[in-house]
Amino acid sequence: MQIGLKILLEINFLAPRAQVVYYNKMISQTILETIFPRFCLNCDREGKLVCDDCLSLIEINDFVYCPFCALPTRLLNGKGVCQKHYGKFLDGLYFAVSYRDKIVKKIIAQFKYEPYLKTLSPVIAFLIISHLIKTKNQEFSRGGENFLLVPAPLTSRKKRNRGYNQAEVIASELASVLPITLSVDCLIKIKETPSQVGLSLTQRQANVQGAFLVKNPEQIAGKKIFLVDDVFTTGATMQECARMLKTSGAKSVRGITLAREPLN
Fold this sequence. Notes:
The protein has a single domain (61-260), classed as Rossmann fold, CATH 3.40.50. The chain has 11 helices and 7 strands. The chain has helices spanning 2-11, 16-35, 52-56, 102-112, 121-135, 139-142, 156-162, 166-175, 201-208, 217-220, 236-247; strands at 93-98, 147-151, 181-182, 187-189, 212-214, 224-232, 252-260. The strands form 2 sheets. Strands 1-7-6-2-3 form a 5-stranded parallel β-sheet. β6, α11 and β7 form a beta-alpha-beta unit. It is globular, with a radius of gyration of 18 Å. Residues 167-261 form the Phosphoribosyltransferase domain. This is Phosphoribosyltransferase domain-containing protein. Belongs to the ComF/GntX family.
């Protein structure tokens, strides 16, 4: 993570206060890893859950792509979706890496499923922030009261079983670095839904329909929302969340995820 910290400080993407917060977190992490040695989940080297060498092998997206194209279409001039997909509730997506990356798959599997390595969240946040830096979107560095980070919610039962909401953990890491307020209670999940894994797009859309509710619409009225999750697959979940947020007054909704799963 020292490599990542050096990049962040040199580019000066973050405000000075955020740089100090991020630096202190990395120092604390290093101390913990010295006392309780860990092993890289990719190469098994002692020291970190993802060593610097393996981290450097992950290719970060330099550009923003339309989230709804089977083969992602590169976008220009700040557009969030391609012309073919105008009219979607989700206004765009920032995804740091491809889900095809083998190291990324291992990170997501161990973060989201057993053994539930919540401590992978700084690695995930680093990859996302690296992508935001490369896309040179100044909204993330300016921030302000018009922007809001909102994690994709889980039901209470599923959150209790896992021990945490993975989207909320990622969003919290991002909020500790970016000058954007985090809201974890404005969007909630009110209906238990079967796993989306293995379902078609139509089945996924039906599965999540009516599953979400905006609890505090006054928090999101007129705001530009960044909706945070771990992986973007078909977009059914984010589309339904975006629909509810916009219906309740959000000005725009764009997604932020670690990875996007190819649709082809």
